[in-house]
Design a protein that fits this description.
CATH class of the largest domain: Alpha Beta
Low-confidence stretches: none
Order of helices and strands: EHEEHHEHEEHHEEEHEEE
Number of domains: 2
Number of helices: 7
CATH architecture of the largest domain: 2-Layer Sandwich
Distance between the termini: 24 Å
CATH topology of the largest domain: Cell Division Protein Zipa, Chain: A
Structural class: alpha+beta
Number of strands: 12
Strand content: 25-35%
Shape: globular
């Protein structure tokens, strides 16, 4: 099983390229992370650094577009955001938000979410957030709203993405991306016959459960949304991403590809 990443990273895209002034950014950080402290020594290079709960938060502004192209997977597979490219095309700057260290990956993810929300608040033209671990793009306003309402829960719908694909027989394949940052295997299924949006929500719910509880799903165990539904979990090599071991789900009423 993969070790959790020591650093979690996101990019906040600014449509007009105007980046927040240091004091405006620091004030927003204090509102969303009141326990944040600045280090004793100034960090060179214009990067804002804060120490929070044993972790280091670094925020750096870049007066240039983020390296995202229209045919990149984060754009091409953003089924949840149909107008993603028109929304970010021509953006002129971005901020890099990184959280390193801390007690564990869950703590880092909470800090990352709140730091991103502070950056969005301080950046008037913030239009999108790219989460590196999940390679997912989301509208900045939506991210800020969801994180603000999530309390002490990590913003899993942003930190974990679900890649959906159509099988030759008409079913749906799905694999998550982002759980490895928490030291967990990704989740995969194939041959799903029902509504793909329901599958997406179910996989995100399982991901949130694993992030909270840890690697508790044993090989051969069953899970389900109710007592009558028995979905078999297997620890198997991925078919979608060869060479990667995953939690493979076998739905009782679906094909077992």
């Amino acid at each position: 099983m993969a070790a959790p990443n020591d650093t979690m990273l996101a990019l906040v895209l600014s449509k007009d390229g105007l980046l927040p002034e240091g004091e405006a950014l620091a004030a927003a950080i204090r509102r969303h992370l009141p326990q944040a402290q600045t280090p004793d020594k100034e960090i060179p290079g214009g990067t804002s650094v804060f120490l929070v709960d044993g972790a280091m938060l670094a925020i750096g502004g870049v007066a240039a577009p983020a390296p995202i192209a229209e045919d990149d997977p984060c754009v091409a597979y953003a089924w949840h955001w149909k107008d993603v490219w028109p929304a970010i095309e021509g953006h002129a700057g971005h901020l890099v938000v990184a959280v390193t260290g801390g007690a564990d990956a869950k703590t880092r993810s909470l800090l990352l979410g709140r730091a991103i929300t502070a950056v969005i608040e301080a950046t008037a033209a913030a239009c999108a957030v790219h989460f590196a671990g999940s390679d997912a793009l989301w509208p900045a306003a939506l991210v800020a709203e969801v994180v603000s309402k999530s309390g002490d829960q990590p913003p899993i719908p942003f930190l974990v993405a679900v890649a959906l694909g159509r099988d030759p027989d008409g079913g749906v394949s799905a694999i998550t991306k982002g759980l490895t940052a928490f030291g967990l295997m990704e989740i995969e299924t194939r041959g799903y016959k029902d509504d793909p949006s329901e599958l997406n929500g179910f996989l995100i719910d399982i991901a949130a459960y694993l992030v909270d509880a840890g690697a508790v799903l044993g090989d051969g165990e069953t899970i389900g949304p109710d007592a009558d539904t028995k979905i078999i979990v297997r620890h198997e090599e991925s078919v979608v991403a060869p060479g990667q071991k995953v939690y493979r789900l076998y739905f009782p009423t679906q094909g077992h590809a």
